[in-house]
Every structure is written in C-alpha cells, then in structure tokens.
Amino acid sequence: MPIIDIHHPRQTPPNGLLASLCAAVTELLEIPKDHCWAMWHPVAQGNYWRPGWQDVPANDLAGPLVRIRCKSSYSEAQAKALIQLVSNELARGLECPSDSNFIVLDRVEAGQLLARGNIWPGNEKGAVPITLTPVAFVRNDRADLSDDFWGDVVSELELNTSVVPSHSLEGLEGFSHAEVVFSFHRVAGKPLSLNLRSPRGLAHLPPIGVLSQRVKDRPNWLGVSRCEILARNGTSLTVRGLDAIDGSPVLDIKPWMDAFGPRQKTIEPSWVSEVMQDYYGVARPSGEGVGTSRSLGMLRRFFGTLPFRWPAYSKEDVEILLRTPHIL
After folding, report:
1. Which end of the chain is more exposed for a tag (fewer CB within 10 A), N or C?
2. CATH code for residues 136-260
3. Spans of all domains in the chain
4. Does domain 3-126 fall into CATH 3.30.460.80?
5. Interhelix angle for 315-323 vs 292-304, to 10°?
6. How many CB atoms lie within 10 A of CB 218?
7. What are the backbone dihedrals phi and psi of residue 82, each rounded to the nearest 5 degrees, phi first?
8. pLDDT 10s digits, 139-151
9. Which of these, 121, 109, 128, 43, lies nearest to 71 by C-alpha position?
10. pLDDT tens-place string over residues 170-213
C-alpha cells in the first residue's frame, strides 16, 4: 500500500517512470520500498472521451487519470502530500502540465485489505485517529511566525465555553504559572519533512531528529509552553511569555506545579543555549536602540551561517555596532 493505477493513451510508460514513482512514494511515507505498487493502464483509441486526449499529437497529450488507494491510517497531511508528489512525478516523467493530471485518492478502511496473508486490522503502528476540540483561543498582537522575543508578549486565553464550562479557570489565579498545549494552526496539515535537520537550519549545528527539537513543523503540530499568569477575568486568562501567535487553538491549560518538574538535574546539548538566547528576549518598544534586541538576534543568526562559531563578537560589541550606523 499505496496502489497507484495510471490510465493514459500511451501504450507503455516512459522507461523507469513507475519505479521512480514508487521510490518517491515510499520515501515520502517512510514505508518499506516494496510496499508501493504502480500499474500502467493503456486506454485504446475509441475507448475514452477526455478533452486533452482527443485528436491531439502524442507529444501534446494531457496528463493521466490516476486512482490511488491507501490505508485510512495515513493523515490528511500525508494524503495531500502523496497526491501532490504523484502529480509532480507524472508531470515530470510524461512531460505534461501538472494541472492536466486528474487524481483521486480512495482510503481503505480496517478489514477491507488483505496483504501478506493477513487482514489489515487498521491499527498499524498504533495509528488511531484522535479528534481534539479547542478549550480556548489565544488573543494577542503577535501574528508573525518568527522564533524569538516572546518574553514580553501578553496574551489572553479566551475560553471556548461551548466545550468547557465558564468556571473552568476558577482557582488558576492561585498559581504563578500555567502550562499550555496549543496547535500550530498556521502550519498544521501542510506536508512535512521529517528528515534530520540542524536546529534553526544553522549549518554548524549537528543534524538531529524532529523529536529532538521544538520546531513547529512536527507530527501533530502541537506546542507545549509554560507562561506566567498575570490575571484571571471570568472566562479569560491573561498570561505573559506564551509563545503562541494570535488565533492559536488551545487544547489544554494546566497549572504549573513544581512537583511535576524534573526530579533530577537536567542536561542539554551545548547548542541549546545558542538557539534559545533570544527566544524569551524582550524587544525594545521605543527610544534609542529601537529594534536592537531583534536586530541582535538576526545578526547572531547571520554569524551562525558563517564558518566560525558564534560569538565571534561579544554581545557588547554587537550592541555598539548596532548603535553606530556608519560602521554597519
């Protein structure tokens, strides 16, 4: 699985097209190389009616009609990425416009597939669909997806009272901090690359897996953050330092209790301090040095792309550079 049926007036596919298509699909879905099949179905003259195939020279034929069958355990994001990949591979191999391809995807449910002598039970790799409904929404002035300067961001968490009672926040004001689980809704559902990558794309840092860093482009697109509680007002909780943009769906809110923190000394790689040095920084709102903190972070990341390791300059040196326009 998946099974890909391709219908086209050409009697045979270009050499190597089906093999390369299956290789690309198995890499995308991260499944064994023999778990994808592709079949070419030539359609004889007179046995079809499709604009783009009628009375057209062989070199100008429109794209194929394609039917993909795959397991229902694949996510919506995987299904969309699969359709797009198949379209791109066929457009390249057949030298036809990708917008002339017609592709339909059918999902096979549990109990409807016999493979390798067994009926597929539908729980492959423990993949059980989960439906989550937001209990609140984030309201703040932060709309951009940039990484840094969350320290002074004040947010209102407005309860979704159609899901939880209006008194659900009562008592939370007795805690100094809360733990918030939210959705990276602006990127959720988009195709993912789960290949090894360096934190923040900095070439001098080691490539690591997606579950070894806190990027937003991750399976399930969930964020977990601890923030300071400033006030509770009925169905709204005011917090500071929550790294979620305006409109983010909140899936859960919990009071932070020290007893739930690590019970042993924590250890982390040395690169963490580099990528986090401005994360909870505070951008200066006005006066001399406007934007200095934000510019400093940008400059640090620029130096991070160079062959030498930051800091090549001290923080104080960079502050002087930023305040002296004729130097930069």
Report:
1. C
2. 2.40.30.70
3. 3-126, 136-260, 283-323
4. no
5. 120
6. 16
7. -65, -45
8. 999 998 888 999 9
9. 109
10. 999 999 999 999 999 998 877 778 889 999 999 999 999 999 99
